[in-house]
Amino acid sequence: MAEKEHMNLAIIGHIDHGKSTLLGRLLMDAGVIDKHVIDEYRKKAEKIGKGSFEFAWVMDSLKDERERGITIDIAHQRFDTKNYYYTIVDCPGHRDFVKNMITGTSQADAAVLVVDAKDGIMAQTKEHVFLARTLGVTQLIVAVNKMDRVNYDQKRYEELQREIFNLLKSVGYKEDSLSFVPVSAFEGQNITKSSDLMKWFTGPSFLDTLDLMKVPEKPIGLPLRIPVQDVYTITGAGTVPVGRVETGKMKKGDKVIFNPQGTTGEVKSIEMHHEEIPEAIAGDNIGWNVRGIGRTDIRRGDVCGHADSPPTIADEFTAQLIVLQHPSAITVGYTPVFHCHTAQIACTIMEISKKLDPKTGAVKEENLDFIKTGDTAIVNIKPTRPLVIERVKDIPQLGRFAIRDMGQTVAAGMVMDIKEK
User: Fold this and answer.
1) Is residue 130 predicted with pLDDT exceeding 90?
2) Where are the alpha helices (DSSP H) in 68-142?
3) Which of 92, 251, 344, 363 has the greatest count of CB atoms below 10 A from its CB?
4) pTM for this entry
5) Alpha-carbon span 134 to 320, nearest angstrom
6) Do 313-420 and 226-306 have the same topology in CATH?
């Protein structure tokens, strides 16, 4: 039996619109989490008078457990539909969503936007939509949740669907990459099968909608880029870097270069799942051995490419930045750690040249001293040591980054232009 295709799924939306409950319900109804685990939580939730929170509680308790590093890790929860196996790359909450989306090798291939049927579009709904678009998520499922709060009213659903559609169109989503589904996660309506309470809705259930997503095309036509995750010394083979082929392809005998060091060599062998393969393509997780390269010549964060189209080394770069959460402000001279592919390098913000209106992209102000939470800006950045990064329009997989400081993701961005070293 062939392995199903893999997709990464992010879950986004305004706080309290039911992201956790939807996820909890889906994992339970799809049989990923045992019902008895949920019953346990229900009892606990009822004890402290939070009866309606049991599913969210499942997620939050799991999230809590995850933060303490025990038992169930949802962030890597595999869950299967008929056609795909999905990894949920987000446990609800800004911080995880962004970190996973940008710095995990996982780019979300699709996202679920959860909107409360009664409350409709809220501030965070807009922000998450803009973020998803900026980060390159092209397909969206809109789950209009809490339909029980509006008595499963068809008119309310259709009205809200129009509003959300206009919002999504305004940030650049195309109609054929959007799906809308009315659900009640708490009541379990239209999650894994059609709902008797919404006979007017003739579309697929939420689970079936996940099966209609399209696997993004593998970027085989782009230049080869493999960020190094680790480097091993293996008896008999020598130095073996491992990593995920983000773009392009590589075969035995290819002349490759590791930047920023500039070390070159010839590919001697490629291994995937402990078997030797003649060629690796975008999406493959591999170990590869290069003739003439020693253990000290490469390290995590280096990027391997073909010698004739080497990975770009930035002296400085210009990026579009979204400030997600910062206790005060981001100023010129600020030097936090940038996470880009597998590299983690301190970079300095040299100039904040423009502040943009997040809804339209129009320039609001120029030459600013600082930006704060919620702002979108164009900034100039200088890495404190050589960094391989690419323009998002050339190689999107290596053109996005997250900025972390004080144990949280403070901003996310994409590279518009590079002044090469």
Assistant:
1) no
2) 94-103, 123-134
3) 92
4) 0.68
5) 9
6) yes
Total number of residues shown for the chain: 421
Q: Where are the alpha helices (DSSP H) in 50-153?
A: 54-67, 94-103, 123-134
Q: CB-based contacts of 162: which residues, under 8 Å, 6+ apart? A: none
Contact 267, 288 (CB under 8 A): yes
DSSP 139: E
Task: Kindly indicate the confidence band of residue 358, based on its pLDDT and cuts at 50, 70 and 90.
Answer: low
Most confident stretch, 6-20, 65-79, 87-101: 6-20
> Around Cβ 125, how many Cβ atoms within 10 Å?
23
Cis geometry, peptide bond prior to residue 204 (ω within 30 degrees of 0): no
Residue 73 confidence (pLDDT) above 80: no
pLDDT band at 105 (very low <50, low <70, confident <90, very high): very low
Count CB-CB contacts under 10 A for residue 331: 13
Pairwise CA distance, residues 197 & 202, whole Å:
12
Which tens digits make up the pLDDT trace of 290-337?
A: 998 988 999 999 999 999 999 999 999 999 988 877 889 999 999 999
CA distance 68 to 395: 36
Compute the mean pLDDT over every residue in the chain, rounded to the nearest whole number. Answer: 83
Q: CB burial class (10 A; 0-12, 13-18, 19+) of residue 193? A: middle
Distance CA 409, CA 96 (A): 8
Class for domain 226-306, per CATH? mainly beta
Q: Residues 147, 150, 153, 156: is their CA dihedral positive or negative?
A: negative
Give the architecture (CATH level 2) of 313-420. Answer: Beta Barrel (2.40)
